[in-house]
Amino acid sequence: MDTLTIICIIIAIICLLSIGFVSIYNRFQENLIRINEVESDIDNVLRKRFDLLNKSISVIKKELPDENPMPIIEDLHSKKMSNFDLDRSLYQAINEFDSYKSRIKDDEFQKIDGVLKETEAELLAYRKYYNDVTTDYNRLRHKFPSNLVAMICGYKDRNYYDNKNILKNSDNLKL
Fold first, then answer.
1. I need a labelling partner for 137 at 20 to 30 A (CA). Which of 87, 114, 157, 162 fits?
2. Rounded to the nearest 10 degrees, what angle do helices 107-142 and 83-100 cross at?
3. 48-100 pLDDT, tens digit each
4. How far is CA 97 from its chain centroid?
5. What's the Cα-to-Cα distance from 106 to each of 61, 74, 96, 112, 157, rounded to whole Å?
6. Is the whole model's pTM more than 0.85, yes or no?
7. Is 25 buried (19+), middle (13-18) or exposed (0-12) by CB count in 10 A?
8. How crowded is the C-beta side of 147, counted as CA atoms within 13 Å?
9. What distance in Å separates the CA atoms of residue 29 and residue 142, rounded to the nearest whole number?
């Protein structure tokens, strides 16, 4: 083999490796975009839930003036936390909200209750989608040769949106 042939073979190998790397990198990017989109959707629903619970406080105080309803909601105004921690806190507030249902018959309160139920259905769908996309991402991260691309690019495993509602890599938000 002459030198020109060897150089052409080396260039061809480098081109094939580059095309493979870019292809795998793009699959990672696609998964990360989908994860970010669903995190944004979850964030929007959580903010909606927060606003509804916050609105219900005034209704509860109007109907039951001696009560101090859902102090956890008032505490959330000043906290910076992940969506998953916020979800956990809102779940606690919704449990407290539910304890007022039998004592408050106000129409606005009932409307808030209905919308809160709708947001729960939305969240269930978004959580499932988030976990599906995270599964795809984590599988890609652990399979050869995409695990090499993940190592080169510094991609880390993503945690699932589980009952503990914990995600290490989530962005913080401030209400």
1. 87
2. 150
3. 999 999 888 888 888 888 877 877 777 777 677 777 788 888 888 888 888 88
4. 24
5. 12, 22, 17, 10, 47
6. no
7. middle
8. 6
9. 15
